Amino acid sequence: MKDLIEYPDADMMMLDLANTIAGSLEMNLQTHETASLCVPGGTTPGPIFDSLCAADLDWARVTIMLSDERWVPESSPRSNTALLMHRLCVGRAAAAKIAPLYMQTDTPEDALGELIEGLKPALPILVLLLGMGADMHTASLFPGADQLDAALRDDAPALMAMRAPGAPEPRITLTAPVLAGAMETHMVIIGDEKREALERAKHLSPQAAPVSVVLPNATVHWAP
């Protein structure tokens, strides 16, 4: 990994990350017409979103996307898109463009082509924020998932459907080449269990520890 930054508490880490991401977006917009930001779902990044949404940026030139999504409508409490809309795409950041990872089709496979086309203008990702599970997954690249090997290939499409043991619904996820190709990557983890998992991931294959595909270019932010 590029760097490991340790913080005394999670609140300080979340505020620092929000400032770092805002600074990277602002710097890019000084020399480029647009910028892209990719963020994870789940509850961990919520405090980052709460600060970042107030950043004084030209948000209309920023495209925001999720790293992965559960194949559920936005009305579902399990929707990552709903979290994004309620906590990041508010305030000043409400002007940002959204590259969706969900459509109203029976299966994610039915929508893959159209969703991939929608992502293309925002690739490569400028700033990528990821989390990591204690099982060493990131995005929806889970150990043991049905399409993991294909999603790890260098020639994988930008998005793939994924079904994993224990996951109650199908997922859609950015694949390894898109995640690894981000210009700037930050990973946020909290607690000793995930810190220990991170150390294990450095010495395991991507099949056993999918997070390892992004670690070489990642700055990891950790708080107890």
Description:
This protein has 224 residues and is of the alpha/beta class. It has helices spanning 10-29, 46-52, 80-87, 112-119, 148-152, 176-180, 192-201; strands at residues 3-6, 35-39, 62-66, 68-70, 97-99, 127-130, 159-162, 171-174, 184-190, 218-223. The strands form two sheets. Strands 1-10-9-6-2-3-5 form a seven-stranded parallel beta sheet, sandwiched between helices. Strands 4-8-7 form a three-stranded antiparallel beta sheet. The protein is globular. The mean pLDDT is 97.
Write the layout of secondary structure elements.
Elements: E1 3-6, H1 10-29, E2 35-39, H2 46-52, E3 62-66, E4 68-70, H3 80-87, E5 97-99, H4 112-119, E6 127-130, H5 148-152, E7 159-162, E8 171-174, H6 176-180, E9 184-190, H7 192-201, E10 218-223
Helix pairs in contact: 1-2
Give the low-pLDDT segments.
none
Order of helices and strands: EHEHEEHEHEHEEHEHE
Number of helical segments with 4 or more residues: 7
Strands of the biggest beta sheet: in what spatial order?
A: 1-10-9-6-2-3-5
Fill in the keyword field for this structure.
three-stranded antiparallel sheet; globular; 7 helices; 28% helix; seven-stranded parallel sheet; alpha/beta; 224 residues
Summarize the structure.
The chain contains 7 helices and 10 strands.
